[in-house]
Amino acid sequence: MPYTEDQLVLVPDDIDLARSPLAGHFSAETHVLGAFNPGLTRLPNGNLLMMVRIAEALRRPIHDGHVHAIRWDGENGDGRFVLDAWPLEHVDTSDPRKFMLTGPGWKVMALTSLSWLLPVELAPDGLSIIALHYDRAIAPNSSLQCYGIEDARISRIGDRYLMTTCSVSPERHSTTLYSSTNGLDWIFEDVVLDHQNKDMLIFEGLIDGHYWAQTRPLGDLYFAYPPGSEWRPGPSINLALSPDGHFWKPYRKPGIRPHAATVATARMGGGTPPILTEEGWLTLWHGVEPNGIVGIYRTYWSILDRHDPAIVIRTDHAPLLEADPALTRPIEHQMYLHDVVFTTGIVDAGDHYIVASGEADLACRITHIPKTVFLGGTTS
């Protein structure tokens, strides 16, 4: 692809954990497992803002016959981060990002890191860092976020910024909403989607006076399409609409679904908040090809009808972005995953788009993609 710029702009070593919200809460040493999956928007001053997920993990999670996890605890009223210990004989630690509890009869997991959000201000072209705003970091502050806050997506609608995040806890794996008037100072609004409905992306604009969003509900059961169908059952990108951005109703029509002809998008979910172009809503999304424990994550694109986003005007079955080993070679010693690019933000920059992605669940990648790239594709 003829990208004019494509580079990593933030890596784990750029993060100062002495300024982390977790600093001083316990004696165990931590490290940055990843600084990745950034929400992206343009600030009123013209600079860009990445809201970066910082996955902070214990340096030695396994010792004394136990695996340990970080948890926010507010039971005593002081809101502290604490450590929990799980006996190794009761867990599966094959995935470096999490461990599964064995024996309950259904899937139960805990995380090897706790995520918080760091606002990182970039130059207008997104290629250099202006400031890391530790004083405006967003960390868990209630029991519904006790295992962390993940994967911000930022939409600007008029003079208001809306940011969706995944809040993780034993209570629920929910989507939570924040709002801002300046893109730097954020107010927690509420839970807006309940358990295991991830990758919520609010459209950057209203349709017939309503807010719209892409969602991705998860489950362990999917009903089969009939034999010969062009669609494959499994996780797909759904749609919802709302009168106020708080209360959401699922749209009756399906959104973007996996194609039966390829396993590259056997699992899929939203990437960037849809933005309006002359042709319709441009949305970048991820497809996952089953491979190993995690799979291969690639970025794809579609243009949706401006009045009914369930209608796909044009798309491309070839990936827009793939993981790039050349970019991560300088930080190869820190890598624990490969073949993963997870696109999470987009900003219009005139003749091109500035696209933000998480690379290998480790670093932040900025790519400049000419608008001419989206003139190709197919109509289905």
Automatic annotation (TrEMBL):
Keyword terms of this UniProt record: Glycosidase, Glycosyltransferase, Hydrolase, Transferase
Signal peptide: none
One GO MF term: glycosyltransferase activity
Pfam families: Glyco_hydro_130
InterPro entries, alphabetized: Glyco_hydro_beta-prop_sf, Mannoside_phosphorylase
Family as reported in the entry's similarity comment: Belongs to the glycosyl hydrolase 130 family.
Protein's name according to its UniProt entry: Glycosidase
Species, as recorded: Croceibacterium xixiisoli
